[in-house]
Design a protein that fits this description.
Length: 209
Protein backbone atom coordinates (compact mmCIF):
# COMPACT_ATOMS: atom_id res chain seq x y z
CA UNK A 1 0.00 0.00 0.00
CA UNK A 2 1.31 3.45 -0.95
CA UNK A 3 1.02 6.00 1.83
CA UNK A 4 0.65 9.77 1.77
CA UNK A 5 1.94 11.58 -1.32
CA UNK A 6 3.29 15.12 -1.10
CA UNK A 7 1.73 17.09 -3.94
CA UNK A 8 1.56 20.74 -2.90
CA UNK A 9 3.04 23.37 -0.60
CA UNK A 10 0.04 22.74 1.68
CA UNK A 11 1.18 19.14 2.16
CA UNK A 12 4.66 20.36 3.09
CA UNK A 13 3.21 22.91 5.52
CA UNK A 14 1.05 20.22 7.14
CA UNK A 15 4.04 17.95 7.65
CA UNK A 16 6.21 20.80 8.94
CA UNK A 17 3.53 21.77 11.44
CA UNK A 18 3.34 18.18 12.69
CA UNK A 19 7.11 17.99 13.11
CA UNK A 20 7.23 21.35 14.88
CA UNK A 21 4.45 20.27 17.26
CA UNK A 22 6.13 16.99 18.14
CA UNK A 23 9.81 17.96 18.03
CA UNK A 24 10.99 21.35 19.37
CA UNK A 25 14.24 21.18 17.37
CA UNK A 26 12.28 21.06 14.13
CA UNK A 27 10.13 23.96 15.33
CA UNK A 28 13.33 25.96 15.77
CA UNK A 29 14.70 24.87 12.39
CA UNK A 30 11.56 25.84 10.49
CA UNK A 31 11.40 29.16 12.36
CA UNK A 32 14.92 29.90 11.15
CA UNK A 33 14.59 28.64 7.57
CA UNK A 34 11.07 29.87 6.84
CA UNK A 35 8.57 27.86 4.78
CA UNK A 36 10.05 24.66 3.41
CA UNK A 37 10.30 24.18 -0.36
CA UNK A 38 8.06 21.67 -2.10
CA UNK A 39 10.99 19.85 -3.72
CA UNK A 40 8.89 17.87 -6.18
CA UNK A 41 10.20 16.95 -9.58
CA UNK A 42 8.99 14.72 -12.39
CA UNK A 43 9.47 10.98 -12.21
CA UNK A 44 10.69 8.74 -15.01
CA UNK A 45 13.95 7.83 -16.67
CA UNK A 46 15.47 11.32 -16.77
CA UNK A 47 14.84 11.86 -13.06
CA UNK A 48 16.47 8.57 -12.10
CA UNK A 49 19.40 9.19 -14.44
CA UNK A 50 19.79 12.60 -12.83
CA UNK A 51 19.89 10.95 -9.39
CA UNK A 52 22.65 8.61 -10.59
CA UNK A 53 24.62 11.56 -11.90
CA UNK A 54 24.35 13.23 -8.51
CA UNK A 55 25.99 10.35 -6.68
CA UNK A 56 29.25 11.29 -4.93
CA UNK A 57 29.70 14.60 -6.75
CA UNK A 58 28.94 18.18 -5.79
CA UNK A 59 25.67 19.75 -6.87
CA UNK A 60 27.66 22.09 -9.15
CA UNK A 61 29.38 19.15 -10.87
CA UNK A 62 26.08 17.31 -11.29
CA UNK A 63 24.51 20.46 -12.79
CA UNK A 64 27.38 20.76 -15.27
CA UNK A 65 27.09 17.13 -16.38
CA UNK A 66 23.34 17.42 -16.81
CA UNK A 67 23.72 20.61 -18.86
CA UNK A 68 26.10 18.79 -21.22
CA UNK A 69 23.66 15.89 -21.54
CA UNK A 70 20.85 18.28 -22.41
CA UNK A 71 23.00 20.06 -24.99
CA UNK A 72 23.89 16.70 -26.56
CA UNK A 73 20.26 15.50 -26.54
CA UNK A 74 21.10 12.62 -24.23
CA UNK A 75 18.47 12.79 -21.49
CA UNK A 76 16.02 10.22 -22.86
CA UNK A 77 16.13 6.45 -22.40
CA UNK A 78 16.47 5.62 -26.08
CA UNK A 79 19.20 8.22 -26.58
CA UNK A 80 21.27 6.75 -23.76
CA UNK A 81 20.87 3.24 -25.18
CA UNK A 82 22.15 4.44 -28.55
CA UNK A 83 24.92 6.72 -27.22
CA UNK A 84 28.52 5.55 -27.40
CA UNK A 85 30.80 5.50 -24.39
CA UNK A 86 32.71 8.40 -25.93
CA UNK A 87 29.47 10.40 -26.19
CA UNK A 88 28.79 9.93 -22.49
CA UNK A 89 32.41 10.46 -21.47
CA UNK A 90 32.35 13.80 -23.29
CA UNK A 91 29.46 14.83 -21.04
CA UNK A 92 31.45 14.08 -17.90
CA UNK A 93 30.43 10.49 -17.19
CA UNK A 94 32.96 8.29 -15.41
CA UNK A 95 33.42 4.70 -16.56
CA UNK A 96 31.18 3.53 -13.72
CA UNK A 97 28.42 6.00 -14.51
CA UNK A 98 28.50 5.03 -18.18
CA UNK A 99 27.78 1.46 -17.08
CA UNK A 100 25.06 2.57 -14.67
CA UNK A 101 23.37 4.87 -17.18
CA UNK A 102 23.39 2.20 -19.85
CA UNK A 103 22.02 -0.41 -17.42
CA UNK A 104 19.18 1.90 -16.45
CA UNK A 105 18.31 2.55 -20.09
CA UNK A 106 18.40 -1.16 -20.93
CA UNK A 107 16.17 -2.01 -17.93
CA UNK A 108 13.19 -0.31 -19.64
CA UNK A 109 11.40 0.20 -16.34
CA UNK A 110 7.66 0.77 -16.23
CA UNK A 111 7.88 4.11 -14.43
CA UNK A 112 4.11 4.50 -14.14
CA UNK A 113 3.92 1.16 -12.34
CA UNK A 114 6.60 2.27 -9.86
CA UNK A 115 4.19 4.91 -8.56
CA UNK A 116 1.94 2.20 -7.16
CA UNK A 117 4.60 0.15 -5.34
CA UNK A 118 4.88 0.31 -1.54
CA UNK A 119 8.00 2.15 -0.38
CA UNK A 120 10.15 -0.87 0.43
CA UNK A 121 9.12 -2.73 -2.74
CA UNK A 122 9.98 0.35 -4.78
CA UNK A 123 13.38 0.67 -3.14
CA UNK A 124 14.08 -3.05 -3.58
CA UNK A 125 13.24 -2.90 -7.29
CA UNK A 126 15.42 0.14 -7.91
CA UNK A 127 18.39 -1.07 -5.89
CA UNK A 128 18.41 -4.31 -7.90
CA UNK A 129 19.78 -2.25 -10.80
CA UNK A 130 23.53 -1.61 -11.15
CA UNK A 131 24.60 1.70 -9.69
CA UNK A 132 21.39 2.43 -7.81
CA UNK A 133 21.99 2.26 -4.10
CA UNK A 134 19.56 2.92 -1.34
CA UNK A 135 20.39 6.66 -1.26
CA UNK A 136 19.51 7.07 -4.94
CA UNK A 137 16.29 5.08 -4.56
CA UNK A 138 15.23 7.01 -1.47
CA UNK A 139 15.93 10.41 -3.02
CA UNK A 140 13.91 9.36 -6.09
CA UNK A 141 11.05 8.29 -3.82
CA UNK A 142 11.16 11.60 -1.92
CA UNK A 143 11.55 14.06 -4.77
CA UNK A 144 10.16 12.36 -7.86
CA UNK A 145 7.37 10.31 -6.29
CA UNK A 146 6.54 12.53 -3.33
CA UNK A 147 6.54 9.74 -0.75
CA UNK A 148 5.85 11.45 2.57
CA UNK A 149 7.43 8.91 4.90
CA UNK A 150 10.71 8.08 3.14
CA UNK A 151 14.04 9.36 4.45
CA UNK A 152 17.58 9.18 3.03
CA UNK A 153 19.94 8.81 6.01
CA UNK A 154 22.91 8.07 3.78
CA UNK A 155 22.81 11.67 2.54
CA UNK A 156 25.84 13.58 3.86
CA UNK A 157 24.00 16.92 3.92
CA UNK A 158 21.24 15.41 6.05
CA UNK A 159 23.82 13.91 8.40
CA UNK A 160 25.63 17.23 8.76
CA UNK A 161 22.38 19.16 9.21
CA UNK A 162 21.33 16.71 11.93
CA UNK A 163 24.67 17.21 13.67
CA UNK A 164 24.16 20.97 13.67
CA UNK A 165 20.46 21.02 14.55
CA UNK A 166 20.66 18.47 17.37
CA UNK A 167 24.06 19.68 18.60
CA UNK A 168 25.69 16.27 18.21
CA UNK A 169 29.42 15.77 18.78
CA UNK A 170 29.83 14.31 15.29
CA UNK A 171 27.79 13.44 12.24
CA UNK A 172 25.46 10.52 12.85
CA UNK A 173 26.14 7.44 10.78
CA UNK A 174 23.58 6.26 8.26
CA UNK A 175 22.36 3.65 10.73
CA UNK A 176 22.15 6.16 13.58
CA UNK A 177 20.28 8.71 11.48
CA UNK A 178 17.86 6.09 10.18
CA UNK A 179 17.08 5.17 13.78
CA UNK A 180 16.60 8.84 14.72
CA UNK A 181 14.28 9.35 11.76
CA UNK A 182 11.90 6.67 13.01
CA UNK A 183 10.65 9.29 15.47
CA UNK A 184 9.69 11.60 12.58
CA UNK A 185 7.26 9.17 10.95
CA UNK A 186 4.81 9.68 9.22
CA UNK A 187 6.54 12.80 7.85
CA UNK A 188 10.13 11.67 7.41
CA UNK A 189 10.35 13.21 3.93
CA UNK A 190 9.35 16.57 5.39
CA UNK A 191 12.05 16.12 8.02
CA UNK A 192 14.47 15.65 5.13
CA UNK A 193 13.26 18.87 3.54
CA UNK A 194 13.67 20.68 6.86
CA UNK A 195 17.21 19.38 7.29
CA UNK A 196 18.18 20.23 3.70
CA UNK A 197 16.83 23.75 4.25
CA UNK A 198 18.72 24.01 7.54
CA UNK A 199 21.91 22.82 5.82
CA UNK A 200 21.48 25.47 3.12
CA UNK A 201 21.02 28.19 5.71
CA UNK A 202 24.00 27.12 7.82
CA UNK A 203 26.40 26.27 5.00
CA UNK A 204 25.24 28.78 2.35
CA UNK A 205 25.07 26.02 -0.24
CA UNK A 206 22.60 23.43 -1.40
CA UNK A 207 22.81 19.94 -0.02
CA UNK A 208 20.71 18.44 -2.80
CA UNK A 209 19.66 19.46 -6.29
Amino acid sequence: MVGRIIETEACVAEGAAWLAAHHPDFARAVAETGPLPLRRGPDGFAALLDAIIGQQVSTASADAIWAKLEAAGLTEERAIRQASEDDLRACGFSRQKIRYGKALAEARLDYAALRDLPDEDLIAMLTALPGIGRWTAEVYAIISLGRADVFAPGDLALQEAARLLFDLPQRPTERELRRMAENWSPWRAIAARALWAYYRMKKSREGIR
